Amino acid sequence: MDWLQFTRILRGFDGTRLGNEDHDGDGTPEPMGDFDGDGIPDIGTEDGHYSAWGISLGGIVTGVLAGIEPKLEAAVPQSGGGGLTDIATRSTQSGVPEMVIAGSWGPLIVGKLLENGQTELAALAPHFDKMDRLPFAMIDGLQPGDRVVLTNEKTGESNHGLVQFNGGFRVGVPADALIPSRIRTHLSLKTKDPDYEPPRVSKTTQLGDALTVTAYRADGTHVAMVSAFENDVQWAGVVYAKDAPLVSLVNGMGRKRQTPDFRQLLTVAQTVLEPADPVNWARHYFNEPLDFSYDPGVEPGCNVLNLVTVGDTNVPVAAGITLARAAGVLTSEQMDWLVATHVVEGNWRLGRYRTDGTGPHLMDTGFNAKTLGDLSILYDIDNLDEGLDGMDAPSPDEPLRATVDTKLGGKAGLRILYMEPHGSHGVTPPDINLPYSGHMYGINLMSRYLLTRGTELPDDVCLADGSCDFIPASPPD
User: Fold this and answer.
1) Of the listed ranges 101-110, 286-295, 431-440, the one predicted with least confidence
2) Residue 23: is its pLDDT beyond 90?
């Protein structure tokens, strides 16, 4: 909505509406959009040309905007994608696993075997871009194969986890808890006071559902039970006091990974997210533009270049490919090729291709990413560098470089930039001293595409050093 409204503001810069700024000091405010005081708007206007670019979350937003803003002529969703729940479940972007996914699995209790033979129990609490690990008890005598049951004493619901060979375990259960802002209100806390001291709370059940942790041998023999905090635990501005009832510190749905229950939750979540998912607007970029006949100042439709990077895990490269497929850029045969070369998978840890030139390895049980990771290299299906980047990535003789002509008189496409052998997220400011820079290539490519309103989609290696004829020379020092 911000971008839609911003576009409408820019369109309103008609040379007659006055702003509040007097840039030339003549005592009269300049027209809106006029920054040099010559009386003519420098940006916007009804006859101006509009394009959009965004990266990462901005790329996702751009993927929606290109389908719903009729004034756009060209757009580049960079490192964006479609299929929002798919992005959420696969993303490694800091904050996404913690604040988006962890709540569906938790509240989580984890166990860690210590050197003294005891198992430390801790609650995991999502905290922006990290998970706070908050120890609260010890258990003696846990063994691999034991069953640890976590019970919500308020609802009667329970889940169990198995102690692994390393002595650890993880288990979650559906539970409610007050969020930090509600805790502050409920207890009238003055957390911004410079002398604030977290109060000790003994009546912890006012803050969350009561929990019990019970451990059993594989044969059902009782091992231990924990139903109270065995030490002080500080969280959300308060101290959960030692010997107080064990309670959930955070909300959670207690779903287990890789289960029908969790997949059902994702399906419901995707249904809720559908109106905001770029994948549902991609068909309206240039194949089926929406009807804006009520607005005589627009020509519906937008040329779109989906720009992604090999092996991206922040916004998984598969999501960017999905968006291009939904837009009509990729054929089924091209999709099969992307799958067969593991570009969609984009996971170097599986060692599909190796620096010795072998691959693809479909299932190599002897490959250990921790010790042999340097031997793994991802596939470069677009080969935009044509062998100049020095990484010697495996690539086809005839690159993909998916491109279609649009009925708008322009081009749409998918370009998969190769930045690192193990993948990377997006395009960043380049090192201009490199003989070939994939980042410079990406910046110049999207710039040329937007400058020409999506009518030119060059694949020249000169983009990597800025030596193309259509790129203006740098001004002298």
Assistant:
1) 431-440
2) no
The domain segmentation of the chain, as residue ranges, is 1-45, 49-83+277-343+379-464, 96-240
Locus of tokens 């994608």: 81
Its pTM stands at: 0.91
Q: What is the CA radius of gyration of the chain?
A: 28
**Using one digit for the tens of pLDDT, what is the confidence trace for 347-399?**
999 999 999 999 999 989 999 999 999 999 999 999 999 999 999 999 999 99
- Mean pLDDT, the chain, rounded, equals 95
Average pLDDT over residues 30-38: 90
Q: Angle 131-57-373 (CA atoms, 0-180°, nearest 5)?
A: 60
User: Residue 405 pairs with which residues in a beta bridge?
Assistant: 411
24 φψ region: left (φ > 0), alpha (ψ -120 to 50), beta (else): alpha
Report d(CA 27, CA 450) in Å as an integer. 38
> How distant, in Å, are the alpha carbons of 182, 277, 342, 357 from that of 235?
13, 35, 43, 51
- Rounded to an integer, what distance in angstroms lies between the CA atom of residue 384 and that of residue 183? 54
Nearest to residue 454, comparing CAs of 73, 16, 146?
73
Q: Residue 365: what are its φ and ψ, rounded to 5°?
A: -70, -15
Show contacts of 124-131: CB within 8 Å, 24+ apart.
Answer: 125/235, 125/249, 125/250, 126/98, 126/99, 126/102, 126/250, 127/98, 128/95, 128/98, 128/99, 129/94, 129/95, 129/98, 129/99, 130/94, 130/98, 131/98, 131/102
The token duo for 95 is: 């904050």
Residue with tokens 């002595």: 167
- Strand duo 238-240 + 200-201: pairing: parallel
Q: Please state, in angstroms and rounded to a whole number, the distance separating the CA atoms of residues 469 and 403.
A: 22
Q: Residue 474: pLDDT above 80?
A: no
What residue type is 366 in one-letter code? G
Q: At what angle do helices 332-340 and 317-327 cross, to 10 degrees?
A: 170
User: How far, CA to CA in Å, does 23 sit from each of 20, 29, 30, 54, 368?
Assistant: 10, 7, 7, 30, 64
Structure tokens at 91: 């993303």
Written as six digits, the tokens of 221 are 């023999």
Beta bridge partners of 171: 109
CA dist 436 and 426 (Å) reads 17
